[in-house]
Amino acid sequence: MQSSASAPVLSSSALDPLQAYLASLPExxxxxxxxxxxxxxxxxxxxxxxxxxxxxATWARIFYNILRLGLQPTPSEQTADRLVLHVGDLLLDGxxxxxxxxxxxLYSPIVSLSDTAANSPPVLFLRSEFMSAxxxxxxxxxxxxxxxxxxxxxxxxVSGSYFDAEQRLEKLDLNQRWTAVKTDWVHLPLISEAxxxxxxxxxxxxxxxxxxxxxFTLGQFRDELTTDLFSGSSPTPLSSSDTVVLLxxxxxxxxxxxxxxxxxxxxxxxxxxxxxxxxxxxxLLNETDRGIISVRETVNQLNQQIASIEKRIQQQTDQARVYxxxxxxxxxxxxxRARKSLHELLARRLGTLDTLQTVYMKxxxxxxxxxxxxxxxxxxxxxxxxxxxPSLNLERVERTVEDLQELVADEAEVENALKAGAVSMxxxxxxxxAELAGLVAAETKAAAAEQPEExxxxxxxxxxxxxxxxxxxxxxxxxxxxxxxAS
Length: 487
Known about the structure:
- Keywords: Coiled coil.
- The chain is built from 18 helices and six strands.
- By secondary structure, it is mainly alpha-helical.
């Protein structure tokens, strides 16, 4: 074990992306800290709980960013998974640090982060269990059910709490511990982030959605809804493996779609709540849905074929010009004949495309009409139910309206009678003028009486003001001094 305080610093250009990320972490600026993270720290779970929790939290952050940023080591020519952590020799080699080696103690944070007793739901979940689970993962399952088949068989051979996986792991040697965790783990927080991103993109396009736009092929789903889901990462779609895992989550845990392995069908956008879930999933896929997808895919293929034919026509035209420039008329004529054949093929493809697009538009219109008719039927049923209420019986309504009209008429008669019986008292203008003059005279008299009283109060306050004796003595002394000076 090295004793130096800081890890060797390598230039970013000499590092692969994963090593560059690790080198940027504060924890990786010290060799001692890296050694503590890479060593088997499972025994500190009880002797140093704070240190154990800090190490687990650091690894949780590292796992999260390795996946989100697409830094997970993968075989060449493969897209890095961002939702599934592949724990194996490839990951250990990718995490190898100069002077420290591979993180052989990595099994401890993996088991801790997959423990439902400490995390509900856990951070890491066995991929095999995730894909086969019937109930939503959020409803939880026992901590023991999260352990792999290999781990179960190994742990059954040692004593300890049946449900405490970490206690049992402490009784195994290093190879047995690694055998227990070397598998694929779904990162549930990233699954949730990806799901929210996909649902947000789908619902944001709700204004232009027709019923047919709720159907996706697997490739269309990846390209349109999973590209650039995580900020700061490369703008690429999710891998095929990640896409299947995400679809399982969206179907089972959120109920926003159904997936049969090839075709995806979303619920209507208005059925998705603010937290990205639907109370009831969409109806199962049927032959109509598959027919719609087939027509759409054929239209896409025809568009690609037409673009290819047009490109080949241009190539034959250019080739004919080159041959003519060289005086090779026979080859130029051959190129023109090929161009003519391509023009005929293009005309047939355009005709087929026009027919299929017309059919697709009619399918889309009919699909919308079906939903409109369903809304009409539901509205009619609701209105019929309301009208069947006894309080809306025609005779009862007429009788109630007549009673109301009679009551209104009676109230009007009473009001008119009250107005007619009211006697208006005549106003004596002379009496009003006399009363006003009296008020003015009273105000004038009161003002005149207040002035002498105020003057008396001021004079009394002035008399109360006396000059202090010391001031008078001082003035007399000053006068004497002035007189002596003058003499």
